[in-house]
Amino acid sequence: MSGWLEVFIVIATVAIVVQMAILLALFLQVRVAIRQFTLIASQLQARIDPILVRTARILEDSEDRIASIMGDAAELTRLARSQAQKVDRVFTEAVERLRIQVIRADQILTGTLEVIEEAGSTFRSKLWSPVNKASALLKGLKAGLDFIRGVRRPQSDAATQDEELFI
Q1: Which of 12, 60, 138, 155 could potentially form a cystine with 159 if both were Cys, beta carbons 3.0 to 4.6 Å apart?
Q2: What tens digit of pLDDT does each residue of 104-129 get?
Q3: What letters, b where the CB count within 10 A reaches 16 and e where it falls short, cover 43-58?
Q4: DSSP class of residue 150?
Q5: Does residue 161 sit within a domain?
Q6: Is residue 162 part of a domain?
Q7: Measured between alpha carbons, how far is 56 from 130 in angstroms, rounded to an integer?
Q8: What's the domain range around 77?
Q9: Which residues, including other chains, have CB under 8 Å from residue 70's CB and lie 6 or more apart?
Q10: Buried b or exposed e, range 126-158, using 16+ CB within 10 angstroms
């Protein structure tokens, strides 16, 4: 058994040495990888830092401009709203004035038509009244002259038929 113990110790020693060699190789590889990552990170940091600094400067410079733009936009909105209210007020007043003018025109036209109708009625009554009187006077004169001459007017057929039916 003593042989087996020495073999086991040798195998364990070889295993420990192999394990230590593997750990040493891992350590060296990790150290190289860390150096490479550190180098890459520093290069990346060197490239990104100016970009971040410029971006920060642009944002700081733009902050006032953006605030100014927002203020201008708010002012434009306020002015547009004010102008829209003025336009609405002007259109409302114009429509109201137009409505009043249409009502006045209607009243004037209605009054004019009434005056024309009244004038027409007055004209007819003043013109036809003397014409009717003159016509009646002429008919009377004609009837008088016919009577004086002794001319009798023939009776109409309807009157003759009525008399014949009556007899």
Answers
A1: 155
A2: 998 999 999 999 888 888 888 887 77
A3: eeeeeeeeeeeeeeee
A4: T
A5: no
A6: no
A7: 109
A8: 2-142
A9: none
A10: eeeeeeeeeeeeeeeeeeeeeeeeeeeeeeeee
| DSSP string of 150-161, one letter each residue | TPPPPPPHHHHH
Look at the chain and report how many structural domains it folds into.
Answer: 1
Q: Report if residue 165 sits inside a domain.
A: no
Contact yes or no for 146/153 (Cβ under 8 A)? yes
Structure tokens belonging to residue 19: 């394990």
Residue 95 domain-assigned (yes or no): yes
For residues 99 and 107, what is the distance between their CA atoms, to the nearest angstrom? 12
Q: What is the pLDDT of residues 92-108, one digit of tens each?
A: 999 999 999 999 998 99
The count of other CB atoms within 10 Å of the CB of residue 32 is 10
CA 11 to chain centre: 94
Task: For residue 95, count CB atoms less than 10 angstroms from its CB and return exposed for 0-12, middle for 13-18, buried for 19 or more.
Answer: exposed
Type of residue at 17: V
In this prediction the pTM is 0.38
List Cα–Cα distances, 155 to 55, 159, 160, in angstroms.
126, 6, 7
